[in-house]
Amino acid sequence: MVLIIGGLSVFVGAIVQGAVGFGVGLVSAPVLTMLAPDLMPGAIQVVNVTLPLFTLAAEWRMVDWRGLGFGVLGRLPGGVLGAVIVVYVSVSVRGLFVAAMVLLAVALTARALSVPRNGVTVASAGFVSGITGTATGIGGPPMALVYQHAKGPQIRATLAMYFFLSAVLSMIMLAVVGELPARALMTGAALVVPMVLGFLVSGPLRRYLDGGRVRTAVLAVAAASALGLIVQNLIMHR
After folding, report:
1. How does it sit in the membrane (predicted)?
2. Which of 31, 41, 76, 159 has the fewest CB atoms found within 10 Å of its own CB?
């Protein structure tokens, strides 16, 4: 069940991320948390560390290295705080945290807030991304908001490099605190297959799909998943 439904969510998320630069965690993390909370966030981090490599293979020359440096600078302390959350916060509470982060990301992304891009805002986005990315596997929206007015190739390349480095850091921190079980790694490795298929589908569609329409559909799916996760937690703890 995890590999079938979770794999489908990763497939859809990979299509979105391949087209607009982010989305796999936003779509997949709530679904995987509902299906197998004990495997999260480790399983999605395997996907997060693999998918950016496909984007970078084609567009690495467009990376904004200065912005990336500020983002990683903020990401380090945020990741430490996210790892502490994983250790000391229960799975059920983390599930609600995932849902809350997704709904917040949906609201902010849907409103398309105009955020100036400078060292302070990028580092701040990296800090928030570090917390949510390590604790829940959803680290894209804060950085995506800062880069939303950049050109498509620069958005995809910069976010891809940031996501790759972030996922590596998150996996190291989760391993250090004993929250990266072998089963999570194996499940994540299995999810790489639908991830690759989703990325391949995103290529031909990228130039035809309107980013606004894709984003609207994804946000609707992500919001529905988050609401479902909230309902599930409420039912389980009645």
Report:
1. Multi-pass membrane protein
2. 76
Tokens read off for 59:
């567009």
Q: Among 20-24, 27-31, 124-128, 216-220, which range has the highest average pLDDT?
A: 124-128
Q: Which two tokens stand for residue 208?
A: 């035809």
Picking from 92, 169, 167, the residue whose alpha carbon sits closest to that of residue 137 is 167
Nearest-10 Cα torsion for 18, 65, 191, 40: -120
Residue 114 in 3-state DSSP? coil
Place of tokens 């569609």: 205
Token couple for 85: 């959350």
Both structure tokens of 128: 């928030």
b/e map 138-149, b = 16+ CB within 10 Å? bbbbbbbbbbbe
C-alpha gyration radius of the chain: 16
pLDDT score recorded for residue 215: 60
